[in-house]
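ugh ok fine here u go
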Amino acid sequence: MHVIEDMKYVYLSYIVENSVPVYGGRRSVDIKNIKSLDKGDSTNIFSFEMGNHWGTHIDCPAHFFKNGLKAADYSPETWFFQKPFVLPLKLKENSLAGPEDIGNIPEGTDLLLIKSGFSCFRGTEKYTHNNPGLKPEVGIWLRERHPYVRAVGLDFISLSAYQNRALGREAHRTFLDPNGVNAPILIIEDMDLSHDLSGLEEVWVAPLRVDEMDSAPCTVIGVIKD
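structure:
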């Protein structure tokens, strides 16, 4: 896609740092400078090791289902969303949102972004241990009533509330089940939705394509009408 002059581009994903918040805690990303110009090498080369569900990442059906698609299985057009809808929905710690909280979604929406404001706690224990989540009924409702929604994005650590993990696993399954009604709905977790997104026109998602990996860290870019 070409850059349009009257559009603004913002990252909706977080940069990967040495320490990242993850579901239920923090983890250290092992970033190594294996070749360095400062040490007399001819180039700079780095390696890094991290979990595929650390930082901003996308959950695909293979996360919970043996017959589910993996991140690398999807075609390129999967990752371009032209009718995103931002839903401001204030959520308290440990709360669970249901279909009644989401309300009306514009016809044709292909990406539902839930802007809860909970990202203000990123970097604290509350963000990783007391995050809100979605009820299993949301996945069922979206797939039955809004089959054009291909993905949901969340500004909290996981669709699963950490204090209600069993229900969270069930919720993941209702979104990702390849044998459910209509197509599975992918889940983008730990997004940065703190920008003014009132003019959001498109969202581009670029997952790291690694063979055999169920899901993937991703870079997400929002295209905003300036």
